[in-house]
Known about the structure:
Blueprint: E1 2-4, H1 6-22, H2 32-35, H3 37-40, H4 51-61, H5 69-81, H6 95-104, H7 113-128, H8 142-155, H9 167-180, H10 193-201, E2 205-207, E3 209-212, H11 213-228, H12 240-247, E4 285-288
Antiparallel strand pairs: 1-2, 3-4
Amino acid sequence: MITINKLRFRKIFRLIFRAYKEKTGIFSSLNAENSGPQKLYIPLGLKPGDEKHIYWLALVAMSDRRTNSRVLYRNFALMFSENPHLFTVGFSPSIDEMTKLFRQYQTALPLGEIGFFIKRKDHLDRFFNGDPRKIYEGVSNIDELIHKLKKIARKHAVKNLFPGAKVKIFSLLAMFLSELSDFDFADIVPIDVWVQAIVSSTSILKGKGQIKVSSLEKELRPLMSRLHKEFRKDISSVNATWILGRYGCNRCVGSNMSNICPIYTQCKGPFTRHRHEVSGKHLGVITVPSAFKAKFKK
């Protein structure tokens, strides 16, 4: 049986968010403004937070699943800049048009993503008038949101309002909206692969066996929501776990991170994710005790 050490969870992630707030270690040079793809790439002519910008953010965020985020956001920004009709609420592009555009702008996404993109745009337009903020109206957390979306889907005989977009994506989009306005939502820290890696590498997970990533996400979400309330005044701190993972954990094997990682002494090393022997795809589970790659040593 696997359990979560809640005291250690608070200790570890408080260290990360505090380091971001105080701009120490890795965060002395990296922050949301110079690292976050949502900050770096915006379609030409748009102002952060205007209606077209958040419309674009919703569509690109719902396409962001274990891809190279910088490339994805950059190419989506260019694609929309040069094809402004894509911003039109109610306009439904054909599969042929979007296939051509995705190829032209080198938007490499999973098989079936082009059709998903069209459906997500159509449903955002039809059911929320093209305003992603309305997705979150009347709900305060992810569980309530998912219930709301399923209810709307049943009412309109739609299988899935936003196909391919799972729970983490709605936290990601909520994070973007909270950065741009006084948007209030509990779950704005995505429980992504980096958060999952950190809880494994720092012994927050206790016991022995396997736990599904989906189950782990559900258990960690309220813990993260409560903890991050301490840092909501510095709203960009929500990017801290992603920045640490992307530019810290990702390089811990080949670079000495001892002086810049806020949890270096608390961590066993980079987490090894389980993959299928043939396809190489992630299996969606975490095994405890986990396997770790050795940290870089001088």
